[in-house]
Amino acid sequence: MKSEAAEHADFTILRYAQVWEDADVLLEGLAIQPDDVCLSIASAGDNALSLLAAGAERVVALDLSSAQLACLELRVAAFRKLEHAELLELIGSTPSNRRWALYQKCRPNLGEVAQRFWDARPSKIAEGIGQAGKFENYFQLFRTRVIPWIHSLKKVDDLLTPKSLAERRTFYDTAWNNWRWQLLFRFFFSRTVMGKMGRDPSFFRYVEGSVAKRILARTKHALTELDPSANPYLQWILKGRHLTAIPHYLRPENFEIIRNRLDRLEWHQAPIEEFLEKTPAGTFSKFNLSDIFEYMSPEQSVALLKVIAASARPGSRLAYWNMLAPRSAPESLRDRIRPLPELSKKLLAEDKAFFYSAFVVEEIR
Fold it and tell me: Contact, 59 vs 52, CB < 8 A?
């Protein structure tokens, strides 16, 4: 089974230097147990590491991109060689003027491909490795070129100040949601601009309707129904670092757990379709599938779900996001895959990485 995404998108560049998917809802959806063997889309590695922190027996991370795996590999090296505060500096969560020196401490633990990748990017390391991807640069443009035309720095800080639910709703309606916000947001997060500057244009092949309108509605939810002062993804978008919240894998209580369990993690550059076709039945019990179905036709999605089900243990769980293209197991697979709609809806409402339109949790029968 060939990878449809690999045929249409460019995977030679570093697209995501962070994982823009909320590990808190992922872990609740998957309900990790001590005997779980997890398959995870690698991306930058954040959520694969969170699966270790949650206590999985083994985690296998896959990606089509050597650049994405270089991000995971540097994170693994950083957990081995740095202390927690140094890790936050290297990522860019906290200010630092010594990131190149921190990288040098990690470099001996990298393979040759990852060394070449990061050696060629000293300026990206100096900014913080969490800023090194195309998607992060897209948000940087929004932060530095668009937001100043909409709101002052003080107004941004006010948004990120803790408030009650009623206060957040009032602030959004009276102080934040002006005509410039509506106009410039719809332009910057349009299909055209996002395809050119943020995501690969091929990722929109199966998207119908207004991209910006859907993302704006989810953003309003994040700014009102959720607490911006507890949202690390929103803080990075608006401030370029983490302030009062950090993603799951970077939290201090998870640092030593991850460091002590790194030998349970492996990674491979391979299409998930080809990897699973070579995997014995019953190998995996939990699947973090990121948003991979977003880039596939409905027919290809069904074919991959069949391959996943064949590699899974009974009672396994799958979790994945839809951003703009609706994907889930169809009725034809109900004998193999059971949806968990109430859990999925609950977790979407809590999702701090707010641009997704759906979070799907399903169970293998």
Answer: yes
Give the end-to-end CA distance of the chain in Å, rounded to a whole number.
23
Query: Cβ-count burial of 331 within 10 angstroms (0-12 exposed, 13-18 middle, 19+ buried)?
Result: exposed
Q: Which of 89, 62, 112, 108 is nearest to 278 (CA)?
A: 62
- Cβ burial of 52 (10 Å; 0-12, 13-18, 19+) is buried
Q: How far is CA 230 from CA 90, 175, 346, 352, in A?
A: 22, 20, 18, 9
- Residue ranges matching CATH 3.40.50.150 in the chain: 4-132+248-364
8 Å CB contact between 239 and 136:
no
Cβ atoms within 10 Å of 199's Cβ, excluding its own: 22
Q: How many residues are there in the chain?
A: 365
326 contact partners, CB below 8 Å, separation of at least 6 = 357, 358
Determine the Cα–Cα distance for residues 141 and 210; give it in Å rounded to an integer.
21
Token pair, residue 230, equals 């507890």
Specify whether domain 4-132+248-364 bears CATH 1.20.1260.10. no
Query: What pTM does this model have?
Result: 0.93
> pLDDT above 70 covers what percent of the chain?
92
On the CB side of 264, CA atoms within 13 Å amount to 24
Q: What is the pLDDT at residue 207?
A: 56
The mean pLDDT value for 21-36 works out to 98
| Nearest partner of 24 among 218, 262, 251, judged by Cα | 251
Give me the pLDDT at residue 192, please. Answer: 74
Q: What is the pLDDT of residues 255-288, one digit of tens each?
A: 999 999 999 999 999 999 999 999 999 999 999 9
Q: How far apart are CA 235 and CA 157, in angstroms?
A: 10
User: Measured in whole angstroms, how far is the alpha carbon of residue 175 from the centre of its chain?
Assistant: 30
Q: Please state, in angstroms and rounded to a whole number, the distance separating the CA atoms of residues 119 and 229.
A: 35
Look-up of token digits 């809806």: 345
C-alpha 213/C-alpha 218 separation (Å) is: 9
Residues 300 and 113: their CA atoms lie apart, in Å, by 31
pLDDT at residue 294, as a whole number: 87
